[in-house]
């Protein structure tokens, strides 16, 4: 422990630089030092740690096993210090400039658009470009800073921060249930009009399960299929049938009684895998201050659990 107390940050930076360059001379040139000074710093580091860190020869240097271990930890320490320095520099900085955001159409209308004026008031130097589409977007190819995406998250090339869970309800209008009866089990849905979303992957399947049991899927049909969620939700409100939709879409209609939740003893979904509402950004060590500011703002406004779940 005493040896570690004698190590300074500059020595660690020089040590990592020597490993990256493979010799003392190039590091000395870049740091405006003599090669003998660089060599002496590394020797002092070895003395402090009481272990050999480098194999030296006339052409190059290479790390010993102890040297490799130190390098691994040194890189982590230096990276954290760099982040801390950046945080301190940005502490009094105000997010500004253009931020390109892409979001699903309906979610953007329901849960982003109502907050834009407040986001603008908080960060007046921020210029927001919000594009709403349900198509696949490659943030690198399409120069997008922040993606809002809903569903099963599988893309490991992007960093993600969860904004909320996507929870589903099976619902129908009181008028529909009064006319055609209330289903008691998922099998009863075969005798009902089920309003199913149909996208590029085909008609959505509905999954149900009782507590602690496996998911089962049903292919159902009814008076209407559509690739527009709001159209189907309105059709359900107008007593055309039942829908399975997330609470962020039909939460208001459930709260004010235009729709009624059905089969509440069952969990319902459109996939057996957990689905989230997430903020995604290109995989890098650190998102920009403007991206962090927008994500933090949305986390604050959505709440936990999200306000549409309450």
TrEMBL record:
Pfam hit, one: LysR_substrate
- Where do the HTH lysR-type domain residues begin and end? 7-64
Is Ubl conjugation among the key words of this record? no
GO molecular function annotation: DNA-binding transcription factor activity; sequence-specific DNA binding
A Gene Ontology biological process annotation? DNA-templated transcription
Q: Does the keyword Transcription regulation apply?
A: yes
Q: Which InterPro entries match?
A: LysR-type_TF_proteobact-type (IPR058163), LysR_HTH_N (IPR000847), LysR_subst-bd (IPR005119), WH-like_DNA-bd_sf (IPR036388), WH_DNA-bd_sf (IPR036390)
Task: Give the record's keywords alphabetically.
Answer: DNA-binding, Repressor, Transcription, Transcription regulation
Name the family the entry cites: Belongs to the LysR transcriptional regulatory family.
Question: Which PANTHER family does the entry link to?
Answer: HTH-TYPE TRANSCRIPTIONAL ACTIVATOR TTDR-RELATED, HTH-TYPE TRANSCRIPTIONAL REGULATOR
Name the record gives this protein:
LysR family transcriptional regulator
